[in-house]
Amino acid sequence: MPIVRWEPFRDLVTTQDRLNRLFNETMGRFVGGEGIRSVAWVPPVDIYETEQNIVLKAELPGIDPKDVEATVHEGTLYLKGERKYEHEVKEESYHHVERAYGSFARSFELPASVDADKVQAEFKDGILTLAMPKKEEAKAKRIKISAAK
Fold first, then answer.
1. Architecture, CATH, for domain 35-136
2. Structural domain boundaries of the chain?
3. 51-84 exposure pattern, b = at least 16 Cβ within 10 A, e = fewer
4. Which of 21, 88, 123, 131 has a Cα at 20 to 30 A from 69?
């Protein structure tokens, strides 16, 4: 087995280089040479089912409802929009930026039971709610059971 010379500072420099690269890549998403940049982001969504509807709720704080579009096409719900950068504050005045800006796009496959022509949307307190009614034939029907004589 060959003898390998241990150089502790070489390992330290390599670790520092890795940390610097990680930090620069992470912060580069938010602050680049041109200032604050738009980055890809994905708003969180909850989807649940009631007796009458499939309901989607998306968190879209700070977004104007005019900058959001929801469409249903061939059994898929498409949700897209944009959180625009606020220009009231100069970029050089920021100390720290964590919120993501820019466009987003999501798609969700819908069950065949959704009636795409009757989808209703409401935007309140930064939450977009889409109520997608089920077709009549897809709703559960209760069957009355009579006792045999």
1. Sandwich (2.60)
2. 35-136
3. eebbebbbebeebeeeebebebeeeebebebbbe
4. 88
